[in-house]
Amino acid sequence: VPLAMQNKRIVSLDLGGMVAGTKYRGEFETRIKQVIDEASKMENEVILFIDEIHTIIGAGSAEGTLDAANILKPAMGRGKVCIVGATTLTEYQKYIEKDSALERRFQKIDVDEPSESVAIEIISGLRNSFEEFHNLVIDDDAIEDAVKLSIRYVTDRYLPDKAIDLIDEACSAKSMKYNSDEDGVKTLRMDSQNLQKEIEGFVLSGQYHKAIKIKEKQNEIEKKISEKKAKKIIPREKRLHITGDDVQKIIERITGVPAKNIQIEDMKKLKDLDGALRNHIIGQDEAIASIVSSIKRNRVGISDRNRPIGSFLFLWPTGVGKTELVKQLAREFFGDEKALIKLDMSEYNERSSASKLIGTTAGYVGYEEWGMLTERVRRKPYSIVLFDEIEKGSFEVFNLLLQVLEDGTLTDGKGRKINFKNTIVIMTSNIGSEEFTNKASQIGFDVTDDKEKKIIRDYEKIKEKVVGGLDEFFSPEFLNRIDRVVVFNPIDKTVLKKIIVLQLALLTKRLSELKIIFEYDAKALNLILKETYNPEFGARPVRRYIQDKIEDVIADHLIKGKKSDTIRITANKDTLKFL
């Protein structure tokens, strides 16, 4: 501590309290003058501290009078008083900077966010007060996890505030869960309240002797309550402990990400992610591997944390599983299929479309409306952002995406920075689809004499030709910011057969809930394969065929009351037969 600052007393000045009760002109000015006189006395060695110092502008002012700022200016200019103020940068720019005379009387000091290690020290210093208040013990790993997890998952606030809040909420949650009313304090309080009502009734009716007797009973109950509350002070060695797991549960509640996904030590979820996706998405192993590898790099902390978790461009025509993969990824990684923000870029093909995504700036029509992209990400920062048919977006929309893909942030129309660092950005495109569907192309389909379409699975050749043509549609800056261009495999008969089996398994599960056994043989399976195989549409015809040819028939039977315990299907020539 500098010598000039030693033995100084820091006194907090409550402006709200000084303004309160000032009815007449001059009362507030008198109070401020008295504070200045007292603080300027040499023997007092006082430094005034004013929190939210921007509130001195206009405080106590009325027509023909001075506000607190103009009263304090001369005293500060003469060096009679020492004042330390605190405010936010936004309010400093809005209020203090506009008054140049007030601004030059202060030395502005920007207080940076503390580092991780300093934040841990700060919270460790507050540990005792939290432990005494909540009657718990806070472990070291809880403090460390509160700081580390808040840095990673609470991105719209600053240390140490956000980590302190995590500790406080974890303590409150555990205290409320385990500190039950086993000792009957709540019951005793209700008894005391009921007796109080009886006392008031006897007093109103003039039966004071009865009121006195009831009051004696109430005093005994209040004494018991005090004794029980005193017994609730648990010795430190018997208190419950707040651990890192408790902090992780609070993060789960705030972010919506399951706690098992965010545990720093637990990588089991990432190990299982690849297999979980392959179980639902058939025939797209390379696409799944590309996505999972990017997510793993991000989760273990070796990728750039200032960018989204991953950014991908999906290519191939309809029906190969692009949208289904996105839904499954949301379910497996974020724990909820609803963690998907989908934007159809055909709706954002005009120059003014960018404002629809981020919100209109002040002064323009629609300023009150939120951005379709920024507001949804702000409310659900842990999600997949899907830009469907990205090539249809306007040039201005692509400029916004450059910022998202490079910096992981986007400023909305209200000037707020929206964090995209915990999102997965996926874009789909039909660019090059003619290379996949052109029957005359040796890359796409080969038409045999019997007119059966057959896909030539020359994946590398397809990928090279299509990816090589992307620069005709997208700028190099945009393509270089994408982590991976994923060309999906076409759907051949082998893959389609597995998809049919998967869809029939889902139908079997739904019918089992109705206590109905569903069975099918190889003939039925081969007929469904024959009727639904169309490389141009991928797997989409499968679901439609099962709905029209199987589910509708079963529904009609159930409605007519022809419910049976077992439903079997087979094939007779080109027709499904129900047994």
UniProtKB/TrEMBL annotation:
GO terms for molecular function: ATP binding; ATP hydrolysis activity. GO terms for cellular component: cytoplasm. One of its GO terms (biological process) is cellular response to heat. It comes from uncultured bacterium. InterPro entries: AAA+_ATPase, ATPase_AAA_core, Clp_ATPase_C, ClpA/B, ClpA/B_CS1, ClpA/ClpB_AAA_lid, ClpA_ClpB, P-loop_NTPase. The keyword Repeat applies. Residues 491-578 form the Clp ATPase C-terminal domain. Keywords: ATP-binding, Chaperone, Nucleotide-binding, Repeat. This is Uncharacterized protein. CDD domains: AAA, RecA-like_ClpB_Hsp104-like. Residues 308-492 form the AAA+ ATPase domain.
